[in-house]
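Write out the bound-state structure for calcium ion.
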Amino acid sequence: MRYATTVKPSPNKVRQTEQLDERQVKNDAGGFVYDIGIWGQLDRFLILGAEGGTYYCNQDKHVKRNYTALKACLKEDGLRVVSRIKDVSTRGLAPKQDHALFALAVAAAEGDLETRQYALASVNDVCRTASTFFYFLEELKSLRKLTGRAIKRTIKNWYDARDVDQVAFQAVKYRNRNGWSHADVLRVGHPSPNGDASRNALYRWIVDDKWTPEVSQPAIVEGYLAASQASSAKEVVKLITDYKLPREAVPTQFLNAPEVWDAMLPHMPLNALIRNLGNMTKSELLKPGNAATKLVLKKLEDAEYIRKSRVHPIQVLVAMKTYQSGHGMKGSGSWNPISAVVSSLDDAFYKAFANVEPTGKRFLVGVDVSGSMSWTSGLPGGLSACEVAAAMSMVWAATEPTVEVMGFADRFVDLGFTRKMSLSEAMKKAQMNNFGRTDCSLPMIWAGERKHEYDVFIVITDNETYFGSVHPKVALANYRKAFVKDARQVVMATSASNFSIADPSDPLALDIAGFSADVPQVIAAFVGGAKEAKPVEFED
Ligand code: CA
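---
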């Protein structure tokens, strides 16, 4: 009998269902992993959200866990929370805005005085459209009373930050969203028009639907009112062209006419464009090789334009999946997808990440294709975590000179990814293999068995590992000892839990929210060798 080795076994003898060290916590699958802490979880929440829960945790529980972490962050440093929300929002890092808007509402309702003030003062930066402003107000309404000077000032600031034409545009485009209209907001805030007759007339029109006769109308209001009276598509086309009307200002009965879409196309913002590709194909505006399709392709291929429009890569992915499926999400009819459009969306995905440059390091990307990754996690378009993980892995597969992509569940899965593969093909291959138990140590073990040298392991996973006979950290340490002593590990999380296979005390390991638009730059900076530190090693 050896008492000491029984109570302190070699790390190589500790299964994932057993605690490797006292810092580890149990994940929802029954394995032991590291806790990323409240700030790490806040980051994941802001990027990934908690909609839909996870494979192991229902939505209510998942949302409440994230709320608890958010409250703990607010208690520790409320201003830091608001700064991070602003950062995520203004840099367009998250595929959806809802989570950041909710977090801002919680800060504005439940933070200390200074935090509440900073949160409300940040509304204008975070809520850049009326739609997001309305969503924020609706969330805030559930958390605190919408009365008092601070709320009135917030509303006034939002409208004052926009000139009359901009407010008019917001009023025409977002008439009614997320349970609010501009009339509702104006009734709560009673913002003064600052003695400006046209602003006064606009506010009156929003609330009473009557225009003050002696004041001239903003062009967009004029165009919108004329379009609502229009009796023919020809008339609507002229109004769209003259007034640059958005789709929301066009009466529904004209939205089947290709010439109407054709008139909107030149000034349509990119995110509206990618969402309406199906509609435009259905109306037969877009046909293979015609002028409108050429214009769409030109826009989708313009890297500068894509970056400026701040469309999130995962929104592009969602648009691609929807368009390729040939039917809309809400039963809005079907179309025959044009293959050139699909492949330019494929290119646009990469362009939507700012500056993806090869680092020249040797990469192994491990994609978790275990059963739990089939969860949709509230991602738009019903994309599963596994599909997004596969698409994300292509960022390195397509750009790095030395890279391999492998799949894993409870064993190695040959996904057969290649550099030239399309995103849809990669997603399909991953989806076909999306089942089984989970062992996140497999990328490092597989690399060691093949005796291949890698500088970087990227593991894309929900961190619900439990099946392996060694912990991922131990597999990494063994790999470093035998092959590349400073091999780095990046864990790209696909759900907003507090779990990570990365040891937070390992300076060569990094945990990041996996669907953030800045993931490629963050990883490039991390693997570029900026961090000078000794790798963690085991003694056994
Ligand atoms: Ca799993």
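---
Confidence is low (pLDDT under 50) at residues 529-540.
The longest strand covers residues 362-368.
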